[in-house]
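Fig. S4 source data, part A: sequence.
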Amino acid sequence: MSNAKPTVAICIPTYNQGKFIGEAIRSAMEQDYRPIEIWISDDASTDDTAEVVKQFLGGATPVFYFRQPENLGMARNNNWVMSRPKAEFIVQLDSDDVLEAACVSRLMELMEEYPRAGYAHSAVDEIDELGNSNRVRRLHRAATFEDAESSLRKSVMGYRVAANMCMYRAQALREVNYCREMNFALDWDLAVRIADAGWGNVYSPLLLGKYRVWSDQSNSRVKRKKTELLGIESVFRDSLMKAFERRGWPCEPLFGSMRGFAMAHAECLAWDCFSEDEKRELQSILLRLGGSSGSVRLRCWMMQHGLAPMFQMQRDLTVFAKDKAKAVLSVFRRA
């Protein structure tokens, strides 16, 4: 019987992240687990990404770098790089994020302990563009392993990870054919489909990574709000609803959650970065997502008439309170 440890491939899809990708690669190379290999798919970047990556080639840790001849888009680039390795486990690492040195070894321990876990994830330190720590992101979750049915039901409330820095079981990825071709919410959608296929997931409360969050409303993520809303709608209509219907579960919780998402995202109607035509288009998607409910219509009106700061303050206080409560609970769980 072989005692060889499972192989792990750390996959880094990237596009125009030359400023950050060096730190991401270095964190992958410094993992205290072996054997690992690093795969990078450059989605036809126009910056200095290629020059940065070349500094890491030819060392003791295998690094495979591919530059796509044309831009594939987020989902296709992710799928390309995750489907190439022959490793038993795949770690997806965004090129502006960072792994702690023990990340792979700690998540591997959980994946080996729970063979029906399709993916593993952990608490993370949220950082800004400059690498400064904003807050600790963790889940309010007592159980290490969550079975497929529980995971599917909880997915109604959103993507149930602290950040999309996950270790996947390659078998689970192959069973669901990787990410669907969508350019937002694809990680959430992948988690839903993995649960739908019968795989659970495992969570570690340890801080095993640094997840970068962009704050400037002028950045590309904010400008892609339409794509984000369409992605959320697709997760519900094309993945969650079908999974619920296959099991004969009632869909009312889905409709309620969709209204909640529409209410939360209505704040974009107050942002100066959008034209009036763009705001009208966003509002139409919000109303469709929320089932044209009166509460969603009222929230949209309030956002367009100067009441956004009130809701922003309420949301910030809620996030602060939840973070503090989770921190206290995590201390008790370790005790």
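Fig. S4 source data, part B ends here. The beta strands are 8-14, 36-42, 63-67, 89-92, 98-99, 117-127, 133-137, 145-146, 167-169, 200-212.
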